């Protein structure tokens, strides 16, 4: 029993990755238990460990937490990455929800049937560069500060960096028109805890590949 | 300028309904502006009122808030419906997120093609009675209290009541295996602010019909 949070999920990014990012950014060491077969999932379900029969599940502070947003909210609150008051929280929440929507769009690309992939990819690029990135570019431009909210590192910065990197994996020049996001990316990547997480050998997971999909789907 | 929150959305439940519920439960009066045409939505976007070009939009305390969860979290926090500490928040968040997953199925149901409707309804029934309602039945049974978290009224109670009523509209006997939830439903419905919201003439919107579906399709394409 280590006292460290323990993450239960498949050995892939999926819905657990934002949690890995946030714990890492907060400097919190964590353990991982990977589901490899359908039976691994069934066992957790029959043990009563999964409130709604689903993973992600994170054992933390005596709780078996499920639901990605609930876990992220708790980690952010505990480690002071959630703003100083209700209004800063409100901004952080709005920014984070937008990022999550973009994230879902990017994630769903690999699950598109072959004949829809190109069209979907075009949608991802369109939404990233017309709907989402302009918002964050403008936020940074308007206040001229290093971080999105309250002149202090918050979960919004961590989650935006994660999504920027995922978007660039799709299309390397995604940030071509966003100079402030480019410097934001460099700056946040250099924060010691985050720099460490970005190095090989960390618990950050690689992008999902098509060949992995059948194996992962059969677990669920 | 009244100082009351102002909600901008279609004249129907959709993604705004949980916000109406929570404001009502907190005893907060609000105004509504209804989108009827695509042109109105495009104007809001052009005017820069919508952070991500989407509604719901709630103007509250000098902010133009978007993203349903952000709005709900703010209201819950402001009106003391979010527990007393981080751990109560964590429970409330878990419960709310689970209920939101169930409500998402109900939200999407009117927009599913006619040939898929029977299957989708069966799926809602199964998830409600096998995955979600048993959890809350057990929570209430284990602590024996009136409210889901911390022996005190919270966002989780409001959200669960909304979900129970929404599922019952489709599956009237859905609570038949859940005695604790039946008692919960009665108790929550009788709380003064909620009772008021459940009466005709309140801002509560009726279940979606074909007309609502058609107007949503036209506005959002």
Automatic annotation (TrEMBL), chain A:
It comes from the Eukaryota. SUPFAM superfamilies: GST C-terminal domain-like, Thioredoxin-like. It is an enzyme of class 2 (transferase). The keyword Transferase applies. The keyword Transferase applies. Gene3D superfamilies: 1.20.1050.10, Glutaredoxin (3.40.30.10). One of its GO terms (molecular function) is glutathione transferase activity. GO terms for biological process: glutathione metabolic process; xenobiotic metabolic process. Signal peptide: none annotated. Residues 85-208 form the GST C-terminal domain. Its EC number is 2.5.1.18. Residues 3-83 form the GST N-terminal domain. Keywords: Transferase. PANTHER family: GLUTATHIONE S-TRANSFERASE (PTHR11571), GLUTATHIONE S-TRANSFERASE A1 (PTHR11571:SF107). Belongs to the GST superfamily. Alpha family. This is glutathione transferase. The lineage of its organism: Eukaryota, Metazoa, Chordata, Craniata, Vertebrata.
TrEMBL record, chain B:
Keywords: Transferase. The keyword Transferase applies. It is an enzyme of class 2 (transferase). GO terms for biological process: glutathione metabolic process; xenobiotic metabolic process. The keyword Glycoprotein does not apply. GO terms for molecular function: glutathione transferase activity. Residues 85-209 form the GST C-terminal domain. Its EC number is 2.5.1.18. It comes from the Eukaryota. Belongs to the GST superfamily. Alpha family. This is glutathione transferase. The gene is Gsta3_1.
């Amino acid at each position: 029993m280590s006292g460290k949070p323990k993450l239960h999920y498949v050995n892939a990014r999926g819905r657990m990755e934002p949690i890995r990012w946030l714990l890492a950014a907060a400097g919190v060491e964590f353990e991982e238990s990977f589901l490899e077969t359908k039976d691994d999932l069934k066992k957790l379900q029959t043990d009563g460990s999964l409130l709604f029969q689903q993973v992600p599940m994170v054992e933390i502070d005596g709780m078996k937490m499920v639901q990605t947003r609930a876990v992220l909210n708790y980690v952010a609150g505990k480690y002071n990455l959630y703003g100083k008051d209700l209004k800063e929280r409100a901004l952080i929440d709005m920014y984070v929800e937008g990022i999550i929507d973009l994230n879902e769009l990017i994630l769903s690309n690999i699950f598109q049937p072959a004949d829809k992939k190109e069209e979907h990819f075009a949608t991802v690029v369109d939404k990233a560069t017309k709907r989402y990135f302009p918002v964050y570019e403008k936020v940074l431009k308007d206040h001229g500060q290093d971080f999105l909210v309250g002149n202090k590192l918050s979960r919004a910065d961590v989650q935006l960096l994660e999504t920027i990197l995922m978007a660039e994996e799709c299309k390397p020049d995604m940030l071509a028109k966003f100079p402030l996001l480019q410097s934001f990316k460099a700056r946040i990547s250099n924060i010691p805890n985050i720099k460490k997480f970005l190095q090989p050998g960390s618990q950050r997971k690689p992008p999902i590949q098509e060949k992995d999909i059948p194996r992962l789907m059969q677990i669920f | 300028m009244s100082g009351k929150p102002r909600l901008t959305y279609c004249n129907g439940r959709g993604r705004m309904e949980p916000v109406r519920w929570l404001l009502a439960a907190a005893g907060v009066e609000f105004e509504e502006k209804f989108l009827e045409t695509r042109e109105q939505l495009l104007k809001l976007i052009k005017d820069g009122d919508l952070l991500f070009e989407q509604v719901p939009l709630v103007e509250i305390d000098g902010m133009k808030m978007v993203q349903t969860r952000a709005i709900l979290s703010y209201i819950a926090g402001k009106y003391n419906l979010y527990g007393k500490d981080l751990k109560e928040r964590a429970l409330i968040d878990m419960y709310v997120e689970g209920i939101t997953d169930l409500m998402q199925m109900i939200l999407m149901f009117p927009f599913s093609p006619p040939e898929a409707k029977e299957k989708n309804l069966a799926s809602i029934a199964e998830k409600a009675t096998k995955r979600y309602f048993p959890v809350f039945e057990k929570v209430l049974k284990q602590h024996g209290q009136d409210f889901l978290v911390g022996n005190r009224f919270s966002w989780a109670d409001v959200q669960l009541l909304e979900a129970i009523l929404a599922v019952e509209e489709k599956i009237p006997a859905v609570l038949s295996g859940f005695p604790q939830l039946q008692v919960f439903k009665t108790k929550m419905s009788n709380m003064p602010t909620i009772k008021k919201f459940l009466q005709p003439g309140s801002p509560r919107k009726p279940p979606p019909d074909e007309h609502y579906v058609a107007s949503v399709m036209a506005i959002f394409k």
